[in-house]
Design brief:
Layout: H1 5-21, H2 33-39, H3 67-71, H4 80-83, H5 106-114, H6 116-119, H7 121-130, H8 153-165, H9 187-190, E1 193-194, E2 197-198, H10 209-213, E3 228-230, E4 255-257, H11 262-265, E5 306-308, E6 314-317, E7 323-325, H12 332-337, H13 343-347, E8 353-362, H14 379-390, E9 399-401, E10 408-410, E11 412-421, E12 426-429, E13 435-439, E14 444-449, E15 455-460, E16 468-469
Parallel strand pairs: 8-14
Antiparallel strand pairs: 1-2, 3-4, 5-6, 6-7, 8-11, 9-10, 12-13, 13-16, 14-15
Length: 500
Amino acid sequence: MNGKIPFLIVPLLALFLVCACSGDEAPDREQPAETAAVSAEPAAPPLPGCRGCHAEIEQDAHHLLECGECHGGNPEAAGLEEAHADMVARPAHPDRMAETCGRCHQEVVRQLSAATHLTLRNAVNLVRNHFGAAEEIPGLTAIPAPPESPENSLQLADDMLRRRCLRCHFYTPGDDYPATRRGTGCAACHMAFSGGKPVDHAILARPTDHQCLSCHYGNFVGADYYGRFDHDFNWEYRTPHTTREKYFRPYGVEYHELARDIHLERGLVCIDCHAGHRDSNAEAGLTCSSCHRPAGAPLLDLPARVSVDDGGEPILTAVSGAAHPVPRLRHPAHEQYGELVACQVCHAQWAFNDSETHLLRADHDDYYPWDSLRVQASSEIENLLEHNLDTLEDELPPAMRDGITGKSRPGVWYMGFIQRRWEDILIRQDRDNIIKVFRPVLDLHLSYIDDEENVIFDNVTGGGPPLLPYTPHTTGPAGLFYLYRFTNLIDGGSPSPAAQ
């Protein structure tokens, strides 16, 4: 028996080796990775044209255009450099929107070109006049480029406007935060962005509040509609204040969540009242009384979206298609004080009160005083401070881009506040004798330190009043003690029994 065992083992071993080495003949066996890689067919070259690389781009049914009609370039080329030659990255930019969007939407582009929503002429001239400008200019692109070292307060203000304040205008894609990065020109309102990138190429017929808030954030009108009030810049007054790690700040600065406007709670969005490119022109006179009329008063000259129902009462048809009854003014206080007091004096739940706002241009490279103020509501300044305070690499120079030309110039504009509050609503009597809500719009203090740390300008405040009338978008019920907000400004100084 012992002599037969080797003769049985050898054939079995040979059969095993043959099966193990002939896997290419077994159809149900997976090939090794190396064999699969060798036998696979080479990848097909990309298709010619834009879709060869950008197959995921989606368009809406009304704008099924060839890419080159707006972006130019060479849509038939297969190579990147050849395809992108003379390509226009932002065809909706104000400098180009007439020849792109304006081919089909000529009247809309014409209206937008003259609207203060695009030119910002009201805001620009307000600040420039405050700091001594003798003449008004047509808009932000006409702000004079100041010399490298400003020689007077107006030149200092112009430099501040071009490089620190006007980051939201349609000529730039916004600040580099997740919720503020957007398109330029027409695309600022009519393209959806998420996380700083376009969602697709579908053109929005109507902007959503997300588009509006990509500019109207940071304690400006619009943010208050959503009940948002920015934290202070100092790390001790922000949350979370115990970490230096990066965390999600969609609008650059964390915000308190306060009471939202009652119109938002009822389902109205921004463009239910403000019609975009027409907002600064045809609807400049829009007020609360445009919709809310006294009981029994004739309903004449109502806004476009407000009609009269079968019962003779006003009703607003929102862009969503929902119908909203418009309350009439029935309380006796409206009749008694309506000609003397603005609506929001009683109905504002809170208001912005940031005072004083200090802006310092520093040309020198001492960054350490700003360690606790790294959050600056400007991604450009924050990146500069983070780099120069935390890395061992060569320091970046103290410089900022011009918001109009895009070119960098010496000097960094830092910002800070004496206080940021919302509790005390400022009630004052305006020049027209109407009692209104005010806010410190022009409570600006400008300073300038050159590259040798010489103080050139210190605490320049301008010549106009720091407080200006404002309409808080924080509407709510008037509350029990609304009279005590304004009766001290009326002759007699005490509430009338008829209105209590």
